[in-house]
Design a protein that fits this description.
With about 260 residues, this protein is α+β, with helices and mostly antiparallel strands. The chain has 2 domains: about 70 residues, Winged helix-like DNA-binding domain superfamily/Winged helix DNA-binding domain (Arc Repressor Mutant, subunit A); about 160 residues, Chorismate lyase-like (Chorismate lyase, 3-Layer(aba) Sandwich). The chain has 8 helices and 8 strands. Strands 3-4-5-8-7-6 form a 6-stranded antiparallel beta sheet. A two-stranded antiparallel ribbon has the order 1-2.
């Protein structure tokens, strides 16, 4: 049983790494992947693990296999706001062909609302790190985001938490997801997302430089690690192209018990 669990965990890690290659543009749409031997050697995994990861991404609609030619990133793959990928807002904006930027950044320790505390399985009064940002696309304000991180994730820091200036420096040059993976050792497994249209409140309108009542999209997301522990609660308010959705759907084959 333990060997099976370790193999499954490794398969998920390899799949996450491949999704990141696609999301970052390292593997362009239509490009051919390195052959299996090269990937196995570079990732130090077995051929069986690699093939399971490739199959996972093929079923998700990111890859296609061509008999006798190899495995390719799908040409028709759209990364702008692809709901099958977990990656940073900067990478998502960049994947649409626009240049991301930050118009506003605030990092602080706060006691979250009951809703946030419940989503992160925290006790009443437990503090979190709140990261607030206003993202731009080609210089135009496009996304207002609020990310809540449990303090436990920072337990390996000498003082229990990095300085707000350290976090600011990291987020100005990179993404929150990458920071959590690289610096905090967090492994993302899946996220649950609630998406709903709404009209911009006065506060949101002021932050995004739009008129109150403008149609926007609100994303509420809870991300979990492989143990199903909640590691990130996010709220995003998107306007314009940043609100476009791209969903890859897989046809469900009927079971033997299905009836027409």
């Amino acid at each position: 049983m333990m060997n099976w669990l370790r193999e499954r965990n490794l398969t998920l890690q390899v799949a996450d790494w491949m999704r990141e290659q696609i999301a970052s543009g390292a593997w362009q749409a239509g490009s051919k992947l390195p052959n299996e031997q090269e990937l196995c050697e570079s990732l130090s995994v077995s051929r069986g693990t690699l093939r399971n990861s490739l199959l996972m991404l093929e079923r998700e609609g990111f890859l296609s296999r061509r008999q006798g030619l190899g495995t390719f990133v799908r040409k028709d793959l759209m990364l702008d706001n692809n709901l099958n990928l977990i990656f940073g807002t900067k990478a998502r904006i960049r994947s649409t062909g626009m240049e991301p930027g930050l118009a506003q950044l605030n990092v602080e320790r706060v006691i979250p609302s009951q809703e946030v505390a419940s989503a992160l399985d925290l006790n009443p009064g437990e503090e979190v790190i709140l990261v607030e940002r206003v993202h731009t696309a080609n210089g135009v304000k496009a996304v207002y985001s609020k990310d809540y991180l449990p303090l436990q994730l920072f337990s390996h820091y000498p003082n229990g938490i990095p300085s707000t200036q350290t976090l600011r420096n990291v987020l100005e040059s990179g993404s929150l997801v990458h920071f959590m993976q690289k610096d905090l050792g967090v492994q993302f497994y899946h996220s649950r997302v609630i998406i709903q249209p709404e009209n911009a409140s006065n506060d949101i309108a002021e932050l995004l430089d739009i008129h109150p009542g403008t149609a926007i999209m609100r994303y509420e997301q809870v991300s979990n690690d492989p143990s199903e522990k909640s590691i990130l609660y996010s709220l995003e308010y998107c306007v314009g192209k940043a609100a476009i959705l791209n969903i890859s759907r897989i046809i469900a084959l009927p079971s033997n018990k299905a009836h027409n």
